[in-house]
Q: What sequence folds into this?
């Protein structure tokens, strides 16, 4: 009996030693592989390894920076309480994460919210759109070679609306010309799927960091006359939407944490009435609807659509097909178009130029952004401003005092 127990014990011990040896061998191989991969990642200079150094937030909403309340004459309001005129504008809610940057001291700036790294001092050269893409792709700056052209949503995320002219924090970002002029227009990588007066079927979007606008420019123009500047960026994609149709007339975006009205109600109104309408809405049983700020509303533009798209699959308002947009009524159709869509108010105010009252409010054009002749001049998805009511001062191009409303609320 004693001999049998001893033999069994030895057999068990032998099996344990064998299993331990096998496990050690497997773990050793795994550790060796990990070391090799880590070494490759550290020493590899390609764009993938560089991008992995940045943690990109899919679509964290960034505040506009506007903290002052205004009426429709541009006068500053000390305070507005719920139920009063002009309650519900941008500065009422101060939604979005406060802008936060780190100057890396090497010619780059990191956005602490989005995780994107930006070229701090852009080239002073004027580029065509294609040349700007090439410039970014070939740029080697501060040890990185994975620079690229930013998307509109990325480029617009650094726009600062506290005062304007420029709409940019120049404590961190240099202007290309070094001067505050209307020519501070920067390319984005969004090529326009429609046609414009200026660019025909070869137009691309950009952001003017002095006037604050988004519009489409001729993509083939170059040099001092028609070329634009470019500010390179690096990092993964920021500005992607993740929509869910809730089946109750609302659309949720998991990446931004915002819930949107799926439809507008087909009524156009001035800015004061738009604010009041949003505040009083109880769509789908929610009572905390509001007018979106300019960054929030630009964040749901889908630049793969336009009423003037050359490809039939892309014809429509510049928004995901989950949403609907009212067609303009016949009495305000521009230049005979019968398939155009409207502008939509935001709660963010604007001056016409530096030092002037904030008579204007920003809008997003989901249909054609027209000139005074009703032609698609700025492109569907353009972001501009217009006077807040019919008695206000005239703006640029065709004035529209009455626009649609797309309701928004925060999910959490």
A:
């Amino acid at each position: 009996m004693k001999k049998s127990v001893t033999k069994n014990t030895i057999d068990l011990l032998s099996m344990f030693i064998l299993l331990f040896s096998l496990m050690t061998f497997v773990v050793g191989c795994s550790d060796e592989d990990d070391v090799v991969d880590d070494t490759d990642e550290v020493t590899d200079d390609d764009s993938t390894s560089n991008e992995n150094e940045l943690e990109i937030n899919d679509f964290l909403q960034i505040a506009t920076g506007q903290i002052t309340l205004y009426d429709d004459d541009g006068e500053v309001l000390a305070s507005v309480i719920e139920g009063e005129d002009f309650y519900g504008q941008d500065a009422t809610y101060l939604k979005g994460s406060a802008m936060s940057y780190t100057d890396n001291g090497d010619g780059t700036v990191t956005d602490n919210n989005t995780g994107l790294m930006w070229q701090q001092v852009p080239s002073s050269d004027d580029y065509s759109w294609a040349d700007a893409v090439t410039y970014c792709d070939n740029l080697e700056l501060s040890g990185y070679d994975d620079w690229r052209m930013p998307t509109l949503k990325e480029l617009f995320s650094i726009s600062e609306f506290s005062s304007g002219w420029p709409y940019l924090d120049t404590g961190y970002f240099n202007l290309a010309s070094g001067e505050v002029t209307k020519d501070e227009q920067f390319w984005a990588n969004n090529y326009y799927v429609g046609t414009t007066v200026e660019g025909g079927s070869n137009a691309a979007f950009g952001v003017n960091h002095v006037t604050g606008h988004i519009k489409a420019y001729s993509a083939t123009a170059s040099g001092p006359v028609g070329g634009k500047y470019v500010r390179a960026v690096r990092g993964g994609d920021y500005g992607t939407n993740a929509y869910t149709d809730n089946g109750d007339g609302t659309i949720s975006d998991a990446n931004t944490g915002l819930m949107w009205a799926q439809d507008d109600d087909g009524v156009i109104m001035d800015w004061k009435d738009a604010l009041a309408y949003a505040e009083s809405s109880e769509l789908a049983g929610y009572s905390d609807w509001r007018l979106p700020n300019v960054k929030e509303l630009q964040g749901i533009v889908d630049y793969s659509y336009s009423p003037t798209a050359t490809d039939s699959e892309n014809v429509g308002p510049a928004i995901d097909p989950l949403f609907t947009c009212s067609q303009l009524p016949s009495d305000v159709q521009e230049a005979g178009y019968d398939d155009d869509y409207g502008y939509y108010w935001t709660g963010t105010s604007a001056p016409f130029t530096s030092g002037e009252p904030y008579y204007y409010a920003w809008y997003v054009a989901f249909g054609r952004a027209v000139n005074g002749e009703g032609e698609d001049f700025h492109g569907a998805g353009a972001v501009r401003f217009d006077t807040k009511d019919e008695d206000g001062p005239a703006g640029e191009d065709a004035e529209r005092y009455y626009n649609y409303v797309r309701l928004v609320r925060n999910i959490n």
Remarks:
- Confidence is low (pLDDT under 50) at residues 1-52.
- DSSP finds eight helices and 16 strands in the chain.
- The first strand starts at residue 69 and ends at 70.
- The radius of gyration is 27 Å.
